[in-house]
Fold:
Amino acid sequence: MNIGLIDADLLDKGTRHPNLALMKISGYHLGVGDTTKLLESYDNINNYDKVYISKVFKFTDVDENRIDFDHIVKGGTGFFENNSPDLPECIEHHKPDYNLYDEYVNKKLASGIKRSHYKDYLDYSIGFTTRGCFRKCEFCVNNKYDRVVIHSPLNEFLDEKRPYINLWDDNFLAFKDWKKVLNELSETGKPFQFRQGLDIRLMTEEKAIELSRSRYKGDFIFAFDFIKDRDLIVKKLKIWKKHIKKTTKLYVLTGYESQDIKDIENTLERIKILMKHGCLPYIMRYEDYTKSEFKSMYIQLARWCNQPRFFKKMSFRQFAMANQKYHKNPKTKCSTMKVLDFFDESFPELAKKYFDLRYENLNLFN
Structure:
């Protein structure tokens, strides 16, 4: 058969990550003698015996009228959220076709885009060593599991030609045999990372020590989603920082539980806690933030926190002043300064408490 494969996220807004399901599908079909091709538009889908369309994100735009044919197979959380059908076992556990995106990537590189933009396509073996998570977070599309189980041995997706390993496990530290998997990763000699981040609430002395000894690539990433977890996360960060010197980031979920001043205050308090523990916050805005009267504040907090070169050196007030300095029209106020002035006037106690805090002054682990 002649097989077409469409990465809907790639065609809509672009993505820095290849679609693992499509690479496995391609690997399987090549293995049984079919031909496969990554399609870069929806124009010629009727020229193929079968076309697989995958989308990860709900917001990815797909014209359903263009894909309403019997030979089209749709998959992914973007179409089905928590009810996304599993791949057949013969495909799920097939080695990915790491050449699927080659033609697309080569064209982009030839157009002048830097190779680093496509490093996930070119440099990483990708897979899940474990699947599942017991947390059942309402905002997460991964709710069909009750626990963490082994999924794939490393050799199932390891490409020896690629220098690094990217693991997409849902909650690796909740797996009872986590240490065994870390040992297997170490035996490859290849630096690795967890794309989904790790669960700081499950940190122990042993886990911190083993991760400190591993060939971990890039920053360690965790999450601090809710202020109610403050005491536990502070306790675990103290364990973590005893053993780890590398940069540590935590996703800070905003605009989810509410979009009011209380959520802004909770966000600022979490940022303060991370400053104290020498960690970098990364603001994650839940889609409902756009409905908030404080929408601009969410945006400016993300601009400040998500750029470490600014966050490490400037308080939020200093960040606003720096933005104003480079504002094109000195007679008007930039968007950051407008937010600062609004909070100084409307919520002076909150502004006094948080807007002059600096990472380099609060960091207890300098």
Observations:
- The two ends are 60 Å apart (CA to CA).
